[in-house]
Amino acid sequence: MAQEIELKLVVTDAAADKVADLVAATLFPDVSGSTATLHATYFDTPDQRLRKHGASLRIRRRADERIQTIKTDSAKGAGLFSRPEWERAVDDDTPILDDTTPLALLPGPPLEGVDPVFTVAVERTTWRVRDDVADIEIVLDRGSVTAGDRSSPVCEIELELKQGDPAVLFALARRIGELIPVRLGVLTKSERGYALSDASARAFKAEPVHLDVAMTPAAALQAIIGGCLRHYRLNEAILLETRAPEALHQARVALRRLRSALKIFKSVVGKEDAGRLQAEVRPLARVLGTARDLDVLSDAVTSKIGRGPVHTQVEHLRDTAYEAVDATLGSARTMQVMLDLVAWSATGPWLDAAATATARAMPVSEFAAMSLRKRRKQLKINHASLEDLDTNARHRLRKSAKTLRYAAEFFAGLFEKEGQKRRRAGFVRTLEKLQDRLGILNDRSTAPMLLRDHGLLELDGAAALIDRHGVDKLVHRAGKAHRRLLDRKRFWD
Fold it and tell me: In which band, very low, low, confident or very high, does the pLDDT at 383 lie, cut at 50, 70 and 90?
């Protein structure tokens, strides 16, 4: 069976103006496109019952035709549905909710009382590109999503491989990215509509990764990478628009999780690929990290000494760091790195490499348990307690704790037995305490270094930011959490 892959690319309005000419004149001069106006209304109950169960219900109008479509998110659907999409013709804009629809499988009372929640109106231009290697549909959607009195623009390209070699689709995406600026699209139109109807989000935390024991380690990594890229892009979009510190922090967390995943799965992807991909992401992570450090320092300045020379200089440095963030996020290199990660995950040679075949063939639960044991072992300290470590050694321990935390989150769905869930909850709580206390210690040591590196130590009030008060107590509490963590029963056994 042909492998179907869809890739969504978000473009600017100015770039969208060039897409038709780009396709017709540059990429495929012998292919003509067709344009249609589409209007879709999405429905849900007042308590958003469909959304909670990973389903969406819409009626799309095209000319005189109306099609009712039900889509499901298999991860959120938790096995309720056997396939992801159903369509049927309807006579008007009233949804059909009888027993012939899969919505009859939803838990609880029969579904009734659905109302319009938001609408999507787009002008859609479609090109179909076929040759001996691949059959690809290119779609440009331009329009808006509207919920009540709020509206958001839609301007995106969708590439769908109908048949053939997936590498051709990603090569086309890269070629488009060379000609116009593009970003990975991670939101469905349904998610866009619900986002409008919600309160405005300032950041998105990582969503649970849905793994199951039937997966291979390679499929598990693909799911994890997809989740990390979605986590990053959701926050990148907010960061570009608002410069919200919370969004910057979460974008940085997404990249840390991605790099940790490559480290955890190094035996599956190969040492060379894991190192290369980590290196590609590192410059972006470094720019975000610089701005994050100045966010933390700015908060400390505001709370401890208020406005004054230090505050003025730190805010200037912070603005400069955010300008660097804007430039990096808008660079062609960053956009191409994201496309490369998606292409590598879906079609990279690592999926067939002989050197990693044994690791790829392992039962995923066995691979997860092995990885968790290894990461926990890295938290053990030989011939010393945490209280005896210097600042650099504590920082290395903090990084190891983060990797273990991410591994525990990635693999959580593989250890769902009652005893495992209970042990995991206790394990993660203690790990969080260790991370929090090491994080506070790290912030305490970072502030003086930033002040020194930027020549601010001599300014009035700067000394108040070099806070040694309570450090010994924090170190003791971190050591206690560290010992408790090593005493915790392992949830993966």
Answer: low
In this structure, what token pair is assigned to residue 197?
């109807």
pLDDT over threshold 80, residue 467: no
pLDDT at 82 over 50: no
Is residue 162 classed exposed, middle or buried when 0-12, 13-18 and 19+ CB atoms within 10 A define those classes? Answer: middle
**Angle CA(475)–CA(399)–CA(470) in degrees, nearest 5?**
20
273 with 243: CB under 8 angstroms? no
The 10s digit of each residue's pLDDT in 401-433 is 999 999 999 999 999 998 999 999 999 999 999
How far CA 37 is from CA of 61, 94, 115, 142, 144, in Å, comes to 9, 20, 23, 10, 12
Helix ranges (DSSP H) in 80-216: 166-179, 189-197
End-to-end CA distance of the chain: 38
How far is Cα 24 from Cα 445, in angstroms, rounded to an integer? 57
Contact 139, 45 (CB under 8 A): no
Residue carrying the six token digits 């059909």: 96
Q: Which helix (H) or strand (E) holds 280?
A: helix 271-304
Q: What pLDDT shows up at residue 36?
A: 94
Structure-token pair, residue 319 = 């603005």
The rounded distance, in Å, linking the Cα atoms of 255 and 343 is: 17
Half-sphere exposure at residue 377, Cβ-oriented, CA atoms within 13 angstroms: 6
Report the C-alpha gap between 353 and 347 in whole angstroms: 12
